[in-house]
Every structure is written in C-alpha cells, then in structure tokens.
Specification:
GO biological process, one term: cellulose catabolic process
Distance between the termini: 9 Å
Radius of gyration: 20 Å
Low-confidence stretches: 1-15, 258-288, 306-336
Organism: Ephemerocybe angulata
Structural class: alpha+beta
Protein name: lytic cellulose monooxygenase (C4-dehydrogenating)
Strand order of the largest sheet: 6-5-8-9-3-10
Number of strands: 10
CATH topology: Coagulation Factor XIII, Chain A, domain 1
Strand content: 15-25%
Number of domains: 1
CATH class: Mainly Beta
CATH architecture: Distorted Sandwich
Mean pLDDT: 79
Family: Belongs to the polysaccharide monooxygenase AA9 family.
EC number: 1.14.99.56
Largest sheet: 6 strands, mixed
Shape: globular
Order of helices and strands: HEEEEEEHEEEEHH
Length: 336
C-alpha cells in the first residue's frame, strides 16, 4: 500500500512551486498600469517598462547578485514617464499568477538615478540606490502588511514630491521571513522598473543615503536573520538597509498597502487590474505615459544582457524531508 506522504507528494510540490512570485503590475495613480513580462529564460518581446526576470523562485543570500533587480533581469525596452508625488501600487503574484503566497516580512522601495543615460540602456549593477519607502508590521500588531497581499491588496510607495527630474530606476522588493529563523533563510524578491520623472523639483539624496545591491544587506542583519521569536513581536522588527532618504521622509511612505476591490478569490486567486490601461498600450495620460526610447542596436543588446546570475533553487529542509523522505518511504511500501 502507499504511504500518506507518497500520496501527498504532488500537493507538497505544487505548494512549493506556487509559493514564489514576482511583480505582475505597477499601477500609477492617475495613469496607466505597467504590466511586466512573466518570468522566463527567454527575453519576451513587448513594450515593457518592468525589467523581466528569469525566475520567480526566491533569491537567498544577501550577497547574491540577483538582489540587484532580480535573477537574470533583462533591461526593458520602454520607459514610463511619471510625475513627482505619484502614488505607485505594486501587484505581487505567485509564479502562476495566483495570489501572492507569503504573509511575513517587509516590502521596501528604492530609487536610483540613471544619470543622463536612458534607463533602458542603464546597467543596474552600477546603480546607487536610496530608500523612499518601507512597509512592515501593522501598528500595535505582530501582523504584517504583506499578509494583505494574499487577499489582493497591493504594496504601495510614493515618488518624493520634490525629487529632481530625470531618469530613474525603481527597485521594489519583498523580503519573506518565514524561514528567517535560520541564517540565510530569508527570501528576497526584487523587481525593477524604468521611469522618467518630470517636474521641476530639486531634491536629491545625500551621499550617505546611497547603497548598492548586493551590498546594502548582510545575512546577519536584524531584519533579515531572526533566530529569536521575540523579533517578530509587535514593534520589535528592524528594517534592513538605510533609513528612508530625507527627501522622501514626509511622503507617508511607511503606510499600509492600498485598499483594492480586486480581491483574489476562489482557488484561482486571480485579480483584475484596477486600470484597463496597460504598459503595452499606447494610450497614456499626461500624468504618466509610456514611451519606447530610440536606442542604437548595440545599446539595446548591451542593456538586454542579464544583470544577475540565477542561483540554484532550494527547498527548505522541512519541505525536502516531507517530500523526499515520504517518497522513499512510499516506494518501499508499494505492494508487489
């Protein structure tokens, strides 16, 4: 006869595969929704402003090159034009486009100037990032805002209202901490988008507010390695990385995810975007528009090169033991 663990193995593996994800869409308040390409080893054609990643699996280790813009991230072809003070909403999905599967850990948002280079030609490994927002535990609670993403809510951040105009990369990430009781157990999910910010602001970060990825985090940072359960208690969590840059500190960037009527429902966990406008459409408002920059073939090919290597995919020790030990046991209990 078959063991119970042998019968449950497919369910365990399906759960493992779906428990990873990526930024599916970025909605700009008053503007269109930027839709990202589904993770793939092959660069997908399309007028995307979100950099495509090769894999939706988690990235482990603070020194992993994938912490830059995601595993094997390709530069996107398009650049979205947005305005200072714009509110951004990030729609996180599992790899199969079902609901985001994790509920423990922060989300953090950074910007980096591309200088005079259009961001679809910019090498993100050379970026110097400054933090503009972060969301962690709810006030007076040990519950995380990330848990709301499982119900269809979106993580949010606001572009600083006084930021100097120019070419910028947006780097938004979730750090899942459900395995962070072990050193190196934290799961990093970074994503990058290419924008051109308008306006006439003068705000810039100071040199001591700038960091690199990888390099901004350590595997032993209090917000990444949490061996003591008390670190999950309300009010005790310490965000990793630099403090929010002064030019963004007054923008309410430490608040809750956006309320949304697009809840993930049923077993599919699907959600409709809050806007019918897409990064793949030409129609865009004055507040935010998407344009495909004119670049040389050499520049496009250089920018299309992956910016990070893909690390091997690992199961947690618990999952590996349940799945493979169960399989071995089941195999030995099959009747002749």
């Amino acid at each position: 006869m078959f063991s119970a663990s042998y019968i449950l193995l497919p369910l365990l593996l399906v759960s493992y595969v779906s428990a990873h994800g990526f930024v599916h869409e970025i909605s700009v308040e008053g503007g269109p929704t930027l839709t990202g390409a589904v993770p793939s080893d092959q660069r997908q054609k399309g007028n995307f402003a979100i950099r495509q990643i090769k894999s939706a699996f988690p990235n482990k280790g603070a020194k992993n090159p994938a912490l830059n813009c995601g595993p094997g991230a390709f530069a996107a072809s398009a650049v979205a034009t947005i305005q200072p003070g714009a509110k951004l909403s990030f729609d996180w999905r599992a790899a199969d486009l079902n609901a985001w599967p994790h509920d423990t850990g922060p989300s953090l948002t950074y910007l980096a100037s591309c200088g005079n280079t259009p961001c679809n030609e910019f090498d993100s490994t050379k970026a110097k990032w400054f933090k503009i927002g972060q969301q962690g535990q709810k006030p007076n609670s040990n519950k995380w805002f990330q848990g709301d993403l499982m119900k269809g809510a979106k993580a949010t951040a606001t572009i600083p209202s006084n930021i100097a105009p120019g070419n910028y990369l947006i780097r938004h990430e979730i750090i899942a901490l459900h395995l962070a009781i072990d050193k190196g157990g934290a799961e990093f999910y970074p994503a990058c988008a290419q924008v051109k910010i308008g306006g006439s602001g003068t705000g810039t970060p100071s040199a001591d507010e700038l960091v690199s990825f990888p390099g901004a985090y350590s595997d032993t940072d209090p917000g990444i390695f949490l061996p003591d359960n008390s670190q999950f208690s309300k009010g005790n969590y310490k965000f990793p990385g630099p403090a929010i840059a002064k030019l963004a500190a007054s923008n309410g960037n430490a608040g809750a995810p956006a309320d949304t009527t697009t809840k993930a429902s049923g077993t599919s966990g699907s959600a409709k975007p809050t806007s019918t406008k897409s990064a793949n459409s030409v129609g865009a408002t004055k507040a935010c528009k998407l344009r495909k920059s004119k670049t040389t073939k050499a520049a496009r090919e250089a920018a299309a090169a992956p910016t990070a290597e893909v690390y091997p995919r690992h199961m947690s020790r618990v999952m590996r033991r349940l799945a493979f030990d169960g399989l071995d046991a089941g195999a030995h209990q099959v009747s002749a």
